[in-house]
Amino acid sequence: MTFSVSECSTFVSNVVFLGFLVGIPIYGFLKGVKVYESFVEGAKEGFQVAVRIIPYLVAILLVVGMVRASGTLDIVSRHVPQSLREIGLSPEILSLILLRPLSGAASLGILGDIVTKSGADSYEARLGSVILGSTETTLYVIAVYFGAVSITRVRYALHAGLIADAAGAIAAILLCLVFFR
Amino acid sequence: MLNAIWLLLMVGSALVAIFTGHVKDLVLSVTESANAAFKLALGLTGILALWLGIMRIAQDSGLVKRVTSLITPVMRWLFHKVPEQHPSHAAMAMNIAANMFGLNNAATPLGIKAMEELDTLNPRKGVATDAMCMFLAVNTSSVQLIPVNAIALLAAGGSSDPTAVVLPAILATIVSTIAGIASAKLLGKCRRFSLK
């Protein structure tokens, strides 16, 4: 029997998941914690936290939706210079990079388009996958995490997050030139 | 900063939409986004309750303290203003571990828990501390080792070798995480962002 890397990684992820979920209550039980009561006590906070992040999410998703609907990304990515296209930065890849900090679902949708149009073994599809793997939905994370503790002055967290995204995208472009060209 | 970006994105989008004839889409998107945000937050309630409950057991059993003392050396360097053995350390470590394995459902509640712990050390409520910015930088730099979603898309699209992207993705992720940590360390020293 052989296992592919993706099957293996799914398996390891699930084991870690169960390790957290089941392992922690077992440890608690062995230490004499009333696990059910303790769980319920902690879980009570769930709803308050969810309600607390609503205004932050509305603010962020509002502008994300407006940027997407306005067609700004199309305009920007249509004007990619030839030199950048040659290293793989097609209009689709550029909109993937620009949309990634704003929306996880939308950037995954773009990768889906690329896979359908150019083929799953194309250079573009591979580059898009590496970019998706090395960047994060920065604005969403900031809205949820800071929203949960009612923080509005985020100082340099946004800068650092966007710099990391840019570094990840640039590294992905260079690494794909090495690996897949 | 967020004030300026927020307004700029809004006004910019409105202007572009007027010039490109997307005004109707833009107007529709506004109500859609507001609804989506509400649904997203409410959709988080269940998993938030689940993982906050599990974290409470970890706390009551002393597991949080044990994990915390194991990872003290790394945490002391990354979050030098957070006192040693602080409960936020364990929550942050578990959040980062969950992120590495792509367990988004577990990572978000653990990250929120970590932020709440960090906020107990915050002298100015409503303003992010250095430790919070560093934690966000690590988080938003993507620490996920295997891009599971992308691999699934490639496999579904009939790729002959969908996992070819794993190695370059891990390397690019390392680059982005180093960039995130380094920029948070450097920006934290900038006078522009000082709290005084």
Task: Describe the structure in your own words.
- The complex is a heterodimer of chains A (181) and B (196).
- Chain A has 181 residues and is an all-alpha fold.
- Chain A has 2 domains: 1-43; 46-180, no CATH class.
- Chain A has helices at residues 5-30, 35-43, 45-70, 72-78, 82-86, 91-99, 104-118, 123-134, 138-148, 157-180.
- In chain A, helix 4 packs across helix 6.
- The longest helix of chain A is centred in the first third of the chain and has 26 residues, at 5-30.
- Chain A is globular and about 65 Å long.
- The two termini of chain A are 32 Å apart.
- The model of chain A has no long low-confidence stretch (mean pLDDT 89).
- With 196 residues, chain B is mainly alpha-helical.
- Chain B folds into 2 domains: 1-46; 62-193, no CATH class.
- Helices cover 74% and strands 0% of the residues of chain B.
- Chain B has 9 helices and no strands.
- Chain B is globular and about 60 Å long.
- The mean pLDDT of chain B is 88.
- The chains are: A mainly alpha (181), B mainly alpha (196).
- At the A-B interface, helix 1, helix 2, helix 3, helix 7 and helix 8 of A face helix 1, helix 2, helix 5, helix 6 and helix 7 of B.
Notable characteristics:
heterodimer; A: 181 residues; mainly alpha; 2 domains; 10 helices; 80% helix; globular; B: mainly alpha; 9 helices
